[in-house]
């Protein structure tokens, strides 16, 4: 009788791919760990307990078939594992790299609850699809039979790219418009290479281009390219712009030079990685080299900033967050990586005022200790200042990583009838995912607010199905009218 390949979690320890030493990895923007060797991926996959109710899949926004492709990996059937992984996700190797698995699939792994350490799902997912690319198993995007209908997608981030892929596979002409000069959205410009190397994104975009999706880059919808013109040009539109308006700080002195937005800082760093000319980096305004850096915020964007500053050669890097470690929104793994690389975290701390030198450049942060008070309406305890607890930090570069809000799209698109919620996100009919405008759909962060890439992919998948139903109905109506 053949040996059972699974259920090895009792006698086989959890083992992630080895990370490079912190001192070495802080010198470059390469990913901090290589992928598994095939025997290691099989061994870790074999730890899966093959639950009757797989909480890992339940807590994955894409509901990936995780236990099934873990079993196939353990059995060495990698091509089948890839095909199953790819069946529910357009970007499995990207999710394997940047999803907060500790809060999603791995955080809900049954053997994690039993004290044996979760199956290393994200690392196996990365291994499966990277192997598929190497072996030539990733098939081209094959368009369906031409429908004669045209779709416009505004935004080349994960939601827009996912919807574009499904709609092209259905046979529609698909045009993607993006304000940047490269597709990918935050995958390209917002996430540093040490989490997601850019060729991983570029090969996905290239596959879509080869499948006949037309990319219009540097296209500022609402400026040189009127929104009304796009509505007239296409049978349906998808708005998947994401949320890019940074939240601000109102503390005294917040207007000093050297206090910068997180996205400006990260985009400049990523552009330098591409070899672009970036004047604001080259003149030192967005370069942390030799600086005493203070990052304000506790989310994944803040973690990206502190770890980027380390790699740029900052003299010191501190992170101020007004809640404690247990209540931070960012990934605990990212915090651990940052601490290993030399970042100092000041929990339960918030800025009071910013000080500037005579030349107007920030020179320090006056901060105060915080404590967690009563819970607010969401159930989170509200931070409040500790009396007489102020302290001083040297800083000549302050990075604000406080999150993002939606831009004013009705004004930007000169379309006041485009409905929004009280938070500024686009209002949709959640049954159809259509906005207040006929034939105009919306998905991703512009609907749900700043969220995870995996949720954007899920929304892109869902909205493609809704748009397909709308286009089918439109075609049927047109045939009857004829």
Count up the helices: 19
CATH superfamily annotation of the largest domain: FAD/NAD(P)-binding domain
Note the gap between the termini. 66 Å
Count the E strands: 15
> Strand portion, in percent?
15-25%
CATH topology of the largest domain: FAD/NAD(P)-binding domain
Helix-strand makeup class: alpha/beta
What integer is the average pLDDT? 95
Mind describing the biggest β-sheet?
5 strands, parallel
- Unreliable residue stretches: none
Q: What form results from the Cα inertia axes?
A: globular
What is the C-alpha radius of gyration, as a whole number of Å? 24 Å
CATH architecture of the largest domain: 3-Layer(bba) Sandwich
CATH class of the largest domain: Alpha Beta
**Please, how many domains?**
3
Strand order within the widest sheet?
3-2-1-4-15
Helix content: 25-40%
What would a concise description of this structure say?
The chain has 482 residues and is of the alpha/beta class. It contains 19 helices and 15 strands. 36% of the residues lie in helices and 17% in strands.
Task: Tell me what the structure shows.
The chain has 482 residues and is an alpha/beta fold. The chain has 3 domains: 114 residues, Alpha-helical ferredoxin (Fumarate Reductase Iron-sulfur Protein, Chain B, domain 2, Orthogonal Bundle); 170 residues, 3-Layer(bba) Sandwich (FAD/NAD(P)-binding domain), CATH 3.50.50.60; 157 residues, FAD/NAD(P)-binding domain (3-Layer(bba) Sandwich). It contains 19 helices and 15 strands. The strands form 4 sheets. It has a 5-stranded parallel beta sheet, with helices on both faces. Strands 6-13-7-8-9 form a 5-stranded parallel beta sheet. It has a 3-stranded antiparallel beta sheet with strand order 10-11-12, with no helix packed on it. Helix 13 crosses helix 15. It is globular and about 70 Å long.
């Amino acid at each position: 009788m053949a040996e059972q390949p699974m259920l090895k979690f009792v006698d086989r320890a959890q083992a992630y791919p080895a990370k490079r030493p912190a001192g070495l990895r802080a010198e470059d923007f390469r990913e901090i760990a290589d992928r598994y060797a095939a025997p290691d991926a099989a061994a870790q996959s074999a730890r899966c307990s093959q639950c009757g109710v797989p909480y890992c899949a339940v807590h994955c926004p894409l509901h990936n078939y995780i236990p099934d492709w873990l079993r196939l990996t353990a059995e060495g059937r990698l091509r089948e594992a890839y095909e199953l992984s790819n069946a529910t996700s357009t970007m499995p190797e990207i999710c394997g790299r940047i999803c907060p698995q500790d809060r999603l699939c791995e955080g809900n792994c049954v053997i994690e609850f039993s004290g044996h350490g979760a199956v290393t799902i994200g690392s196996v997912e990365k291994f499966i699809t990277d192997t598929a690319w190497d072996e030539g198993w990733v098939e081209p995007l094959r368009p369906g039979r031409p429908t004669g209908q045209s779709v416009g997608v505004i935004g080349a981030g994960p939601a827009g790219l996912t919807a574009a892929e499904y709609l092209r596979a259905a046979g529609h002409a698909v045009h993607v418009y993006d304000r940047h000069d490269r597709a990918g959205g935050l995958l390209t410009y917002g996430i540093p290479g040490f989490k997601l190397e850019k060729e991983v994104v570029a090969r996905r975009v290239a596959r879509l281009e080869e499948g006949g999706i037309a990319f219009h880059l540097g296209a500022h919808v609402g400026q040189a390219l009127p929104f009304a013109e796009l509505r007239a040009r296409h049978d349906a539109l998808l708005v998947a712009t994401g949320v890019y308006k940074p939240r601000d700080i109102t503390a005294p002195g917040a207007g000093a030079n050297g206090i910068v937005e997180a996205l400006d800082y990260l985009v400049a760093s990523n552009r330098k990685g591409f070899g672009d000319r970036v004047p604001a980096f080259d003149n030192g305004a967005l370069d942390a080299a030799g600086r005493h850096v203070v990052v304000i915020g506790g989310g994944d964007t803040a973690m990206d900033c502190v770890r980027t500053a380390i790699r740029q050669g900052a003299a010191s890097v501190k992170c101020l967050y007004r809640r404690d470690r247990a209540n931070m929104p960012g990934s605990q793994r990212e915090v651990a990586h940052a601490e290993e690389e030399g970042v100092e975290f000041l929990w339960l701390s918030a800025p009071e005022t910013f000080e500037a030198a005579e030349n107007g450049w920030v020179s320090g942060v006056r901060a105060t200790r915080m404590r967690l008070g009563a819970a607010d309406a969401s159930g989170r305890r509200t931070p409040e200042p500790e009396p007489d607890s102020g302290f001083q930090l040297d800083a000549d570069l302050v990075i604000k990583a406080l999150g993002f809000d939606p831009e004013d799209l009705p004004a930007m698109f000169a379309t006041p009838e485009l409905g929004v919620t009280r938070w500024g996100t686009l209002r949709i009919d959640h049954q159809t995912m259509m906005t207040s405008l006929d034939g105009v759909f919306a998905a991703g962060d512009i609907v749900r607010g700043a969220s995870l890439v995996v949720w954007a992919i899920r929304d892109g998948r869902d909205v493609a199905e809704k748009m397909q139903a709308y286009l089918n109905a439109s075609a049927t109506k047109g045939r009857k009218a004829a």
